[in-house]
Design goal:
Chain B: GO terms for molecular function: superoxide-generating NAD(P)H oxidase activity. Chain B: Keywords: Electron transport, Ion transport, Membrane, Oxidoreductase, Transmembrane, Transmembrane helix, Transport. Chain B: It is a multi-pass membrane protein. The structure holds 2 protein chains of 2 kinds. Chain A is mainly alpha-helical. Chain A has one domain. Chain A is 58% helix and 4% strand. Chain A contains 6 helices and 2 strands. The two termini of chain A are 28 Å apart. In chain B, the strands form 3 sheets. Chain B has a 6-stranded parallel beta sheet with strand order 11-10-9-8-12-13, sandwiched between helices. Chain B has a 4-stranded antiparallel beta sheet with strand order 5-2-1-6, with no helix packed on it. Chain B is elongated, with a radius of gyration of 29 Å. By secondary structure, chain B is an alpha/beta fold. Chain B is 47% helix and 14% strand. Chain B folds into 3 domains: 237 residues, no CATH class; 124 residues, Elongation Factor Tu (Ef-tu), domain 3 (Beta Barrel), CATH 2.40.30; 182 residues, Nucleotide-binding domain of ferredoxin-NADP reductase (FNR) module (Rossmann fold), CATH 3.40.50. Chain B contains 19 helices and 13 strands. Chains A and B meet through helix 1 and helix 6 of A and helix 6, helix 7, helix 8, helix 9 and helix 10 of B.
Chain lengths: 156, 557
């Protein structure tokens, strides 16, 4: 039944993870919370976890202004354009590059693990990145002529 | 394709009924779940969380419904037993399609449910309605942990089940899909821990189910959803037991076209024509079950399947039985050479070679099945139109053989005539099937009972055209298929085929002896790609008239 082509599989996981990221980031903007606030924080009733002063930098970019969430969402849209792919990127050099995808997915992992809603997005992005790493290690290539269904001749 | 989303989903009565009932039930459960949470006085503390808790409870109930449904279409043996009685109610062969619809719906409602819970736990922590923080609920309580696990399992299962991945690497799909076991455990465990309660802490008791329904106020949906899971598990155990019953691979025949025929003897295996089975060869893989159409008739003393060596597993099987690709290639070559020397009117394409099993014993095999197909009821119609396209022709091997046996015994039921259509890109690759057709054709006493129509859709080169033109003229047998029936080229025009058939039946030429008052049923049995199925179905609908009832059934793999 053939062998798994890792980059084709990775694409589905990656697209799932970016869809999750977009949705998570959207809710992350509405309900802002730093994921690791429990580390040095204290619990107040009512009010929940009060993060420690040493985490103030994260509070600034996640709770006071949802910068991380917005970046995560933009990154997710950018990644979607790259890997879906958007028509103008199709077949271009960046579209064929696995390292770019791996870097973007790791960046997404880093960004989305920081805010409360992004944990699963981070996990799935990480899995997708690992699948692309595997594709890269195995020396897989994006097929150029895939769109003309294997018929030779003109490029897409 | 020719129809848009609206036409496909709403303008076909059956599809419309499905959509209304299926999605209607989803919306009903959502609304009910929402309403019963919102109006529950005991849960007023939780209701302070407002819309998010109502949404999560509603979506949770919908997910319980989906979780109960997801395994139902996979109860293959149950479906096989109930299908003759319930075939009118639901298309039993669309079970995988239904499984997918439930899965899509499950993904959507999981999104709704999870989103709502993220808001819930955020607010629980903020208001401290329960003395815990959000991450405790997410990662320290049964509900949260099982939920996150189920989501991860869903990501893995859905992505590997994509049709591209499934075709590329069936194993990836097959093994990953068994994560369903853990998914179901997660589902049944998801509401444990007395999650929905009117008390700040969970209220556990020492007897089953270990929580008091006094204070634990969940929907208790596991009491319903667990049954399909138990039945499915039981079915898998039963399949395992059944597969272990005495089975012997008695013969391996290699046809010159490269197909291997496995003849298996299993006395406990009962089936009807047109069904299929799963086969496992422990020497090749101890876990994998591969589906194949049964090509023997129930009257045969053995069960046979024809296997072409096209994938990893089938290659490995070929190697194991001593009919690897090289062997087959050599044999094909030899057969072709012999063919050229042969001066008989029709060649030796039908000859097969039995694999010599003196060197190494034939491998053990296990078979599981049989599983259903609509072609079981060919004998209830007056005219059976059997259409096989490409590889979809295989179930008709068994059916044609079976018809032939019944014809000999004179127990054809109401069946008067059989029209067999074989639409195929290149007929020679199905040499073994031609052999069978030859036998069946040669055995016909009544030339009108069985008509074989072969359509070759491949583009033919100029050389071939000349060959056919010269060799075909006046020859007793068709040069391509070695049948008496002529091969036709190009795609069949279904509309005119059915129109002509309808006309011939009405004028009484087609079925001599049937009076026009009696309603004639023309049953079409199709196996092959969906596009063709649609074209044929449309043709049957167009040919419908007062005295002739055209039915259509499609088989799936």
């Amino acid at each position: 039944m053939g062998n798994l082509i890792w980059h084709e599989y990775a694409r589905y996981v990656a697209l799932t993870s970016v869809a999750y990221s977009m949705w998570a980031a959207f809710w992350g903007i509405l309900y802002r919370k730093y994921f690791f606030d429990f580390v040095h924080g204290i619990v107040r009733s009512p009010g929940g976890v009060q993060p420690a002063a040493s985490d103030s930098i994260f509070i600034t970019v996640i709770v006071k202004a949802p910068i991380v969430q917005i970046l995560s969402m933009l990154l997710a849209f950018g990644y979607l354009a790259l890997d879906y792919p958007a028509p103008f990127l199709k077949g271009s050099v960046i579209h064929r590059s696995f390292p770019i995808r791996i870097i973007l997915l790791f960046l997404q992992t880093f960004l989305s693990i920081l805010y409360y809603q992004g944990t699963n997005a981070a996990l799935y992005s990480f899995i997708a990145a690992m699948c692309y790493v595997r594709a890269q290690v195995k020396g897989e290539m994006m097929a150029d002529a895939k769109d003309n269904k294997g018929r030779g001749g003109g490029k897409a | 394709m020719g129809e848009n989303f609206f036409q496909r989903e709403f303008l076909q009565p059956r599809r419309l009924a499905f959509n209304v009932i299926f999605y209607g039930l989803h919306l009903f459960f959502f609304a009910y779940g929402w309403h019963s949470q919102e109006t529950n006085k005991k849960l007023s503390a939780l209701n302070a969380l407002t819309w998010s808790v109502w949404t999560s409870r509603g979506a949770g109930l919908v997910l319980a419904f989906d979780g109960g449904l997801i395994l139902v279409p996979m109860l293959r043996n149950v479906i096989r037993v109930v299908r003759p009685r319930l075939a009118w109610l639901f298309p039993a062969d669309e079970n995988i399609w239904f499984h997918r619809q439930v899965a899509y719906s499950m993904a959507f409602w999981a999104m709704v449910h999870t989103t709502a819970h993220y808001v819930n736990f955020f607010n629980v922590e903020r208001t401290q309605v329960r003395p815990e923080i959000a991450l405790d609920i997410h990662y320290k309580q049964a509900g949260g942990i099982s939920g996150h696990f189920m989501l991860l399992i869903m990501v893995l299962m859905y992505t590997t089940a994509h049709h591209k991945i499934r075709h590329q690497c069936f194993e990836a799909f097959w093994y990953t899909h068994h994560l369903a076991f853990f998914f179901m455990i997660g589902l049944y465990a998801h509401a444990t821990g007395c999650f929905v309660r009117d008390s700040p802490g969970p209220d556990y008791i020492s007897s089953f189910p270990f929580y008091s329904t006094e204070h634990c106020l969940g929907y208790e949906s596991w009491r319903f959803t667990i049954w399909p899971g138990i039945i499915y598990f039981g079915e898998r155990v039963w399949r395992e037991i059944r597969a272990r019953r005495a089975t012997r691979l008695s013969k391996v025949l290699v046809h010159p076209s490269g197909a291997m025929e496995l003849r298996i003897i299993k006395p406990s295996f009962k089936y009807v024509a047109g069904q299929w089975l799963f086969i496992q060869v422990p020497d090749v893989s101890g876990w994998q079950w591969h589906p194949f159409t049964i090509t023997s008739a129930p009257e045969d003393p053995y069960v046979s399947v024809h296997i072409r060596q096209v994938g990893d597993w089938t290659y490995a099987l070929g190697e194991r039985v001593g009919a690897g690709p090289q062997v087959v290639a050599a044999m094909t070559k030899a057969a072709l050479k012999g063919d050229e020397k042969d001066d008989r009117a029709y060649g030796s394409r039908g000859d097969f070679v039995e694999i010599d099993s003196t060197g190494r014993a034939l491998p053990a095999v296990r078979i599981d099945g049989p599983y259903g197909a609509p072609a079981e009821d060919v004998f209830n119609v007056e005219v059976a139109v059997l259409v096989g396209a490409g590889i979809g022709v295989t179930p008709f091997a068994s059916i044609l053989k079976h018809i032939w046996y019944r014809q000999k015994k004179g127990t054809l039921g109401s069946l008067k005539r059989v029209e067999f259509f074989w639409v195929c890109r290149d007929a020679p690759s199905f040499g073994w099937f031609q052999t069978l057709l030859q036998e069946v054709e040669a055995a016909q006493a009544d030339p009108n009972f069985l008509r074989i129509n072969i359509y070759l859709t491949q583009k033919i080169s100029e050389d071939m055209l000349w060959n056919i033109a010269v060799n075909d003229a006046g020859a007793e047998y068709d040069p391509l298929t070695l049948l008496r029936t002529r091969t036709m080229f190009g795609r069949p025009d279904w509309k005119s085929i059915y129109a002509r058939m309808s006309q011939a039946i009405q004028s009484g030429q087609y079925l001599p002896g049937t009076s026009a008052q009696l309603k004639t049923t023309v049953g079409t049995y199709f196996c092959g790609p969906g596009v063709l199925a649609k074209a044929i179905k449309e043709a049957t609908v167009a040919a419908q008239c007062s005295s002739i009832n055209f039915t259509f059934a499609k088989e799936h793999f």
